[in-house]
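Quick one, T. Sequence first:
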Amino acid sequence: MKKTLFPMPSKKSKKKTRKLRGHYCRACGRRRANEKFSGKGHAAHICKDCAKKQRTEAKKKRKIAASPRAEKNFFSGLPTSLSEELIDNVFQSEHVRIERIVSTGQSSPPGFWYNQPEGEWVILLRGAATLEFQGESMLRPTPGDYVYIPEYIWDCYVKDWLEGVTVNRDGQNDGMRGFRLPRCFSSELPNKEFFDECKKLLLDEHVAILSSADEDIIEAGESMPLINKLTSDSCEIARKDPVYGYWTLFDRSHGFKLRFSFDDDIEIKCASLPELVDLKITDYCRKRCNYCYQKSGYDGEHADYFEVAKLIEALAELQVFEAALGGGEPTMHPDFIDILKKCKEYRIVPNFTTRNFDWFRDSKNVEVFEQCCGRVAFSVDRPCDVTDVATIRDYHYFDSHRVSVQVVDKVSDVIELAKAAKKHGVELTLLGFKETGRGEKYQFSKRQTEQLIGFGAIRELYGHRLDARFYGLASSGLSVDTKYLADHLDEIQKSGIEPRLYTTKEGVFSMYIDAVQRKMGPSSYCSVRDQVAIDVDRTSDFSVSSLTNQIQTFFQSCSATLTKTN
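C-alpha cells:
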C-alpha cells in the first residue's frame, strides 16, 4: 500500500449558477413561464391571470349593484316606538345611496329647512307624510307617490343672500355659464363672505360681464383662470386671508390653488396662515440614503400619535388645506393609518412621500388611501422604479394626478428618469439637492458630475407641453420644488414662465413642523437656528388653542420677515 506524504488537494468544484426561467410578475410576486404573459403584460410585468383579475375587479367596480336578496324586506324589523327618526343605510355605492327612513310623527323644528348638498329621490311606501318647500305649497303624498328633491343647499342660501336682486334666466346668453360657489373650510355650506364680495363686484356699474360668445372683445388666447375654475364642479374651498385680505381657492380633489383678490389694490406676496404644512411624523427609514438631508435611519424615532393628532387639530383651526406627511419613511409609522384618518376627519388633505412600494400591496391600505389621501409621491432613483409606480397606479386604477414620482437633482440621472416618466404618463417632480443632514458631506461621483443637466434639457424633452402663460409646469406633468427653482432660477426665467406663478422663498405660503423633535421652521431643510421649539402639553385638559397660537405667531413673523428680505 502506497502512502503519500503530501496528498494532492482535491479539485474544487465550480458552483453552477442556474439561470432563472420565465418572467417575474410584479402583481402576484411570482416568476412564471413566458407563455403566461401577453405582449403588453410582459412589458408591464403582469401575467395573464393577474391581468384577468384586474379586469374582473374593474367590472365589479363598474357594476357594484348587488342583486336583491329574498330575506331582505323593507317592512321587516320595524320598531313600535321611536323618539326620533330611524335611518337605515340599505345600500351604498360610489354614486348611489339607498336609505330606509322610519318615522312615527317626527317633523322638522319650526323655522328649520333642509339645505342638503345632494339630490334625493323619495318614495312613500306606507303611512302618510308632508313635504314643504320654501316659498311653495305643501305636498301630501300617498303610498306609492314619489318626488325628487334637487340639490337645494345653494339655492336656498343664495335666495336669502340676494336680498331682492332679480335674476332673469330667460334672457341668458348661450355663452354665459353659471358658477358654483366655493364652500367654507369646516362645512358643506357656501362661503357667505365670498358671495358678498362677488355680488358687490358683479353689481358694480363699472364692471362688464363677458361670455365666451364675445370673441371680438376677448383677445385671442386670453386666459380666464378664475372663471374657468369657478364654472367647474371641482373648486371646493375658499379661504380669505385675515391679514392681507386676498382669497385662496383650493380644490381638494386635484390640489389646485388659486390666489386672487376682488380689490385691485391688494398685492399678494405672502400669507398670514399656512396653506400647506410639511409634517414630519417619523425619523425611521430602512433605506438610509447617503444623501438624505433628514439623516433618517434605523435608529430613528416615531412621533407620538397624541401629539400628531393635536397638531392636526391645531392646523384645522388655522384652516390649513394640505399636510405633506414625511420622514423618514412615513408608512413605517405604527399609527400611519390613524394619522391619515385624523386628517380626513378634520378636513385636511393628507399627501405623503414614500419609497415603500409594498405598502400598496395591502388592500386595506389602498382603501384608506382612496378615501383619505390626496396624492402620493414615490421617490425613485432608476427608470425601472418609474415602471413599478406606473404598475401600482394602473393595477389599482388610481387617477393619474394622484400618483407621481420625485427625483433629486444632481444625484440621479434626471433625463433618463424624465423620459421614463413621460413614457408611462407619470407626473414628475424635480427636487433640488439639499446640503443639510447627510447631504452636507455627500461626495458626488464622477458619473454624477458628468450627467448634471439644467432645466433647458428638461424643457426640450417636454417641448410644447410646458404652458408658460397660466398653468406653468403643472399642466404638463412636470413640477419643481422651491430649492430646484432657486438652483435653476436663470433657466426658468428664460423659459417664459411668469414670475408671479412661483416663489423661491420657503415659509411664505407653507411651513415645516417636525413632530419627532417638536420643532417648526420655514422649511424642512432650514438651519437649526431658524427652527423654534413647540411646547406640547400632554395633560388631559390640554387646549389646542395654545398650540394654534404658537404655530400662527411663528408663521406670521417668518413669512413677513422673508417677504421683506425678498
